[in-house]
Amino acid sequence: MGITILPFQMATKRFLWLISIVFAVILGFQYLELPYSNILFSLFSTNKIPTSESSTLQDEHALDVANKTRMSGEENITSNSEQKSGGPYANSPEIAPAYLNSPLSPITKMSPDIPTTVSSNDYKTSLSRNDDNILDNNSSVNSVPKENQGSLLPVPEVTTISEMNKLLLQSHASYRSMRPRWSSAVDQELLQARSKIENAPIVENDPNLYAPIFRNLSMFKRSYELMEETLKVYVYREGDKPILHSPYLVGVYASEGWFMKLIEADKRFVTEDPKMAHLFYLPFSSVMLVKTLYVPGSPSYDNLIQYLHDYVGMIAEKHPFWNRTGGADHFLVACQDWAPSETKLHMAKCIRALCNADVKNGFVFGKDVSLPETHVRYAGNPTGELGGNPASNRTTLAFFAGKLHGYLRPILLQQWANKDPDMKIFGKLPKSKGNKDYINHMKSSKYCLCAKGFEVNSPRVVEAIFYECVPVIISDNFVPPFFEVLNWESFAVFILEKDIPNLKLILLSIPEKRYLLLQKRLKKVQQHFLWHKNPIKYDVFHMILHSIWYNRVFSATTT
Predict the structure, then answer these.
(1) Region entry Disordered: which residue ranges (predicted)?
(2) pTM: predicted TM-score of the whole model, two decimal places
(3) Are 437 and 429 in contact (CB under 8 A)?
(4) Residues 444, 451 contacting (CB under 8 angstroms)
(5) Which of 206, 270, 286, 512 pairs with 106 at a CA distance of 20 to 30 A?
């Protein structure tokens, strides 16, 4: 008897053959890694989420490709004349040193707390080959998520210095504070100041300012002039000592105390009429807050947060100015490590000048300010010694000494302590009068390692500037001081935490000519980090005040 093949059976067989052919093609693409194979595969696996491991491998592959692509043109970059004007970040660098092309191996055995992925090609020193005649171009920004009012820009696990540059640029273009509930003449004055800064006349030379260390010298100079001409600050007098109006003037957190002392004695910027004020200062000490209220051994500092809540509530009840802007024109200056956490709830809309300027802990570009952590040993002489050996007499390649706070420093010592005579890496040094041993090491070293401790910030950054030892910042997600205006890559080196095993290779790959330029610029930036009992133009007091003013100008809105 013959077998009859029905039409629907033939159709079924054709359909099965078609499916078999399609899957064979897909498997062939996957196996041979042909172009667009991932796209084809994704059409049949839309419910699958990529693992972090696969994402990491793709990121690392992209990084390798980017570095290899850069190699060919790296050695043939010619010098250009220094850019004297342009956009807000005209002086931002985009020059990668030779070590970016070295086959650096990532850490394979590290603390699990250290991020092992990197989302950019960065640990650049961004120095030019020709001293004052340089064209530093900012890298292009394709698409950075726009920041909504009061929110944070999305950031990757590790935010490199070049990515921070992009976030800063985006925030100044998009971040705006809460609209005032009612109008005031000061709102228009801030908008007029912004326009004048954005259209600043070109500054070709200034005897007191060194152009290469600034993002845009013309804009900084105009902004500073307008601050001197316009800015008025109201200092709230309410509150009792020791937490309020009680500056703490010595130790590693002394920056907040010196600012408080000097602003409360100021006659130029401070006004007694709050209706004239562009900014309102909340004069509390984060150091004294902890010393006064924290119970040693307690797992919580909720009582410290409650104290600040009650203080703000008292200010808002007694004065109308907090409620007018939701606190957006109020600012605080706090250096103690816990300050970001203590202030992020009830003072979130304020401009916060913080030593612990951590991208991953709520630091908002365009609003918050990175406060320099200056270690003041003697209140009678806040600056102390300055300077160090000439570059030709700095015999140590790199130096670090300090307590083994946090996860990173033990790794630094494990990798480098007593391993190499060029790398003087220690734990805590024995006590010496005036900390002379520590200071002498800094004065005789080319590079001073500023490795994070419990938090991202370290007083070593400013100490290195004092002793003219080029700072090497090893602290992922740390926003360096005065980031709004200073071009940090022109006088410092940034190295990712994961690259600690390659420290010497990285530092040796920086040409001597480039190192000398780094150190020259470091000397020029020094004046902006010095405290004086009687503040002088462009010193650290005025730089802190300027960064707060600058961020307020660029975030202010009107009704």
Answers:
(1) 70-92, 126-151
(2) 0.75
(3) yes
(4) no
(5) 512
